[in-house]
Every structure is written in structure tokens, then in C-alpha cells.
């Protein structure tokens, strides 16, 4: 029995992972530097303290955040990372989806397949663009190749088309999932860093209580409690935003994957049905 051809016709995208890796490598330190600058020169500005006294003046809300301790700029950096990586993912997944609604595109392709108009389906892929269209176009190209190939029987040709679609999918999908690991990691690390800041703030508060011989330095005590709560707030915010963004992106990727699977199945079934002996 002859072997099913396995060579993919879809172009490899070797630079995608490298580009994404470079982007992540640059974004992480830049976000940390920016958050430190904001913490030092914006939140720590004398204008946020009564009388311009950064050390002893009563702070406004920005000054309260500034007095949250040395971990605050780190957690602020996490928030910036989530925002930047979320924007980047929205752009990438939007491009992967294409120029029109993915559901509309799938229905058009299925309609052309039902009519046996492979050329129109391929032209629709060119109009749609994006990862889903690239995968479907690769399957349609293989469809046309198998129609003129007399080496294999119908079942082997259908398997070849299916394999081509799977290979094209394997080349496109990693691009969509890049940097999601970072967002998922920020869910945990944001909470843990915020918790660490909270613990440090509470340790400082209890130290103030214990170090005054029964008396209470209300200013120092309130400052320590404020430090704990500021870190708690930023930690929870980081985790909440990260979870929401991660779920949104995984849902979008699942929808694209489903669209590819549905359309790919239609291509294979159409070929098998129209080439029965």
C-alpha cells in the first residue's frame, strides 16, 4: 500500500516564536522600570503630601500608595505587564481571526464546498486572511492537488487532506498561545507578591505596637497598616485582571480552533463524498 504524502504545503513560521520571545524579553523589564519611575517621581511627588513634606505630611490617595512600601512598584509592574500583554494578544488574535466574523467566514466556506466551488472558497480565504483562513486555504490547496493525483485511492486522499489541515493548524496555533503563559503566571505571582507586602506591613504594624511600651504611635501604626492594604489591593487587582484576560483569550482561541476543526471536517467530507467510486 502506498504511503499517504505527509509533506506540508503551508509555509513554516519560524520567526513567530522568536519575535514573541523578544517582545516578552523587552516588555518585562520596561514595565518594571516604568512602574518604578511612576512610583518614585509621580506617586512620590511632594504635591501629594500636605505641606510638601514627603516624610511626615499627610498624604492624598497617591501618597498613600507611595507609602505602600518597596514592593508596590514591583506589583505595579505586574499590572502594567498584564495590560501590555493583553493589548498584544488582542491585536494578534484579531489578526488571526481575519477581516470578517469567523462564523460568517465558516458559513461561506461551507456554502462554497456544498456547491463544489473550491476556487471560490480559496478566494474567500484570500479575502478573509488570518490564521484560520491560512489553515483552510492549505486544506483547499491539498484538495485540488489530490483531485489530480492518481497514486492514491479516495480514502488515502481524504486522509492526506486531513493531515495537511492538522499540520497547518500546528504551525498557526502556537502564535495565538504565545505569552499566555506569562499572563497565567501573573495570576499567582501577583497574589503572592501582594501577600508578601501585606505580611511585611503587618509585621511593621505589630513592631510599632510592641516597641512603644504600651503606648501607640498612631501615625506609624496607620502607615504600616496602609502599607499592608495597598499591597493587598494591588495583588488582588493583578490576579483578577490576569484571570479575566486569560479566560477571554483562551475562549477566543478555542473558538478559532473550533472553526478550523469544523471547516476542515467539511473539506474532508466534501472530498470523500464527491469522489466516491
Description of the structure:
The chain is mainly alpha-helical and about 280 residues long. It has one domain (about 15-275). Helix content is about 80%, strand content about 0%. The protein has nine helices and no strands. The chain has helices at about 15-45, 60-65, 70-95, 100-115, 120-130, 130-145, 155-175, 180-210, 220-275. The longest helix is centred in the last third of the chain and has 57 residues, at about 220-275. It is rod-shaped, with a radius of gyration of 28 Å. It starts with 13 loop residues before the first helix and ends with a helix.
List its salient traits.
rod-shaped; disordered N terminus
Topology at a glance:
Elements (H helix, E strand, L loop, with lengths): L13 H30 L17 H6 L5 H26 L4 H13 L3 H11 L1 H18 L6 H24 L2 H31 L7 H57 L3
Helix pairs in contact: 1-3, 3-6, 3-8, 3-9, 4-5, 4-9, 5-6, 6-7, 6-9, 7-9, 8-9
Question: How would you briefly describe this protein structure?
Answer:
This protein has helices spanning about 15-45, 60-65, 70-95, 100-115, 120-130, 130-145, 155-175, 180-210, 220-275. With about 280 residues, it is mainly alpha-helical.
Number of domains: 1
Shape call: rod-shaped
Q: Order of SSEs, N→C?
A: HHHHHHHHH
Poorly predicted runs: 1-14
- Which oligomeric form is depicted? single chain
| Count of separate DSSP helical elements | 9
Number of strands: 0
Q: Terminal Cα separation, in Å?
A: 18 Å
Assign a percent range to the helix content.
Answer: over 70%
Radius of gyration: 28 Å
